[in-house]
Design brief:
Shape: globular
Structural class: mainly alpha
Radius of gyration: 22 Å
Oligomer: single chain
Order of helices and strands: EHEEHHHHHHHHEHHE
Strand content: 5-15%
Low-confidence stretches: none
Strand order of the largest sheet: 1-3-2
Mean pLDDT: 89
Number of strands: 5
Distance between the termini: 44 Å
Helix content: 25-40%
């Protein structure tokens, strides 16, 4: 086998091309361990009936072809893309002028690019926004795109400031008890300085976030105490129960996949419950 770095437009396209070359991309952390970022372990698809020389030659020729095609693909990715979601905010705010100015830039925290940020608007024709930030840097480095897009989506001015008010005593009334409400949840998202966001976070950073949380949650006391369930190694019966109870999300969402959020699945993911 041969470990290589190859973006190649995503793992599905790489698998299809490898099939044509009598190769297969496998996990860098064991045969079924999944790839790390854009690093793949390329091995021969077939073995029986082929000599050692034939297998090595197939590997050399295949890897060289993949490298050649990946370079061409990376060059093409710098061209102004065809945005399939023509009515999206990305189509409105990612102009050719802005693209030419920002397309070669890579963020410091997660190595994110504008092409990765707008991948869903390019791939699908049903996006309203069509953009994802890969790290905190994305908002700053690609501000010429993010700022006007965010302002239009949220209906705020360029000088708007977000305010936080956690005083629940100011809340009046409640949901009508006669309303057919089955359950209620409050969803809060937080990021950690120095780590990428889901679309751009590296495999190493994701594991780092998980380790930070495992250490912190182990010190939760009294009514805050609970259990952290990592998805890696989770028994199927436990996973399915958490999904059925709407505590755990499932993989396979096309938007999340194209946006980069399912890379290295399920490593570095889990759920804390008490």
């Amino acid at each position: 086998s041969c470990g290589i770095n190859a973006e190649y437009g995503g793992v599905d396209k790489l698998k299809a091309r490898c099939e044509e070359l009598a190769l297969q991309p496998r996990g860098t952390r064991g045969e079924s361990g999944g790839q790390t970022g854009h690093t793949y372990d390329i091995s021969n698809k077939h073995r029986l009936g082929y000599s050692e020389v034939q297998l090595v030659q197939t590997m050399i020729d295949g890897v060289n072809k993949l490298y050649e095609e990946d370079l061409a693909l990376q060059k093409k990715q710098l061209e102004f893309p065809t945005i399939q979601s023509t009515h999206s905010l990305v189509a409105k705010h990612v102009t050719k002028e802005r693209w030419d100015k920002l397309c070669k830039h890579t963020t410091k925290t997660a190595g994110f690019t504008l092409a990765k940020a707008i991948a869903c608007a390019v791939e699908f024709d049903n996006q309203h926004c069509g953009i994802y930030a890969g790290d905190w840097d994305s908002y700053k480095d690609f501000a010429e795109v993010f700022d006007p897009l965010i302002q239009e989506y949220h209906g705020i001015s360029a000088d708007a400031k977000h305010t936080s008010d956690m005083d629940f005593s100011k809340i009046t009334g409640n949901v009508n008890p006669e309303a057919p409400v089955h359950s209620t949840r409050i969803r809060v998202g937080r990021s950690i300085d120095g780590f990428g966001l889901s679309p751009g976070i590296t495999q190493e950073q994701r594991v780092g976030v998980e380790n930070l949380f495992k250490t912190a949650s182990a010190n939760f006391k009294d009514e805050l105490a609970g259990t952290y369930y990592p998805l890696t190694g989770m028994e199927e019966s436990v996973r399915q129960l958490l999904v059925d109870d709407h505590f755990l999300f499932v993989s396979g969402d096309r938007n999340l996949t194209v946006a980069g959020m399912e890379r290295d699945w399920p490593e570095g993911r889990g759920i804390f419950h008490n």
